[in-house]
Design brief:
The protein is of the alpha/beta class and 135 residues long. The protein has a domain of 70 residues: Nucleotidyltransferase, domain 5. The chain contains 3 helices and 5 strands, in the order αβββαβαβ. A hairpin with a 5-residue loop joins strand 1 and strand 2. Helix 2 crosses helix 3. It is found in: Cell membrane. Belongs to the ExbD/TolR family.
């Protein structure tokens, strides 16, 4: 009996790449689909103004400052005034400047009640164009 001699190393093992490529293609497809869904941007349609028509520049409204110092004195545009004259001055300022604004700057140490009372009297004359400065 003769035995065949087997040659070692003559048979090269083969790796079947087709299943591995199939898996890689599925993973790549998954990442492409996920990245496309994450990058979709939803927008709002905005109609931009054309450059043909220049926008008119509105002048800034004039601001009158009413100061209430720690001694309780009232200053309207750096001039001392009384409470009764203040309402007349605010009314005259707002009539002269239709887009004007009156700002009350009160000292920090004043009682809040005094500041609110003066602000209420000014708002009775000027309405929404009277405000309180916070700094």
């Amino acid at each position: 009996m003769r035995f065949k001699r087997q040659r070692r190393g003559s048979d090269i093992p083969t790796v079947n790449l087709v299943p591995m490529l199939d898996v890689l293609m599925v993973v790549l497809t998954f990442f492409i689909i996920v990245s496309m869904t994450l990058t979709l941007q939803q927008g709002v349609e905005v109609q931009l103004p054309s450059q043909d028509t220049p926008t008119p520049v509105e002048p800034e409204p004039k601001i009158a400052i009413v100061e209430l110092n720690p001694e309780g004195e009232i200053l309207f545009d750096d001039q001392p005034t009384e409470k009764t004259a203040l309402t007349a001055a605010v009314k005259a300022f707002l009539e002269e400047n239709p887009k004007g604004i009156v700002v009350l700057q009160a000292a920090e140490k004043l009682p809040y009640e005094q500041v609110v009372t003066l602000l209420g009297e000014m708002k009775a004359v000027g309405g929404e164009r009277v405000s309180l400065a916070i700094e």
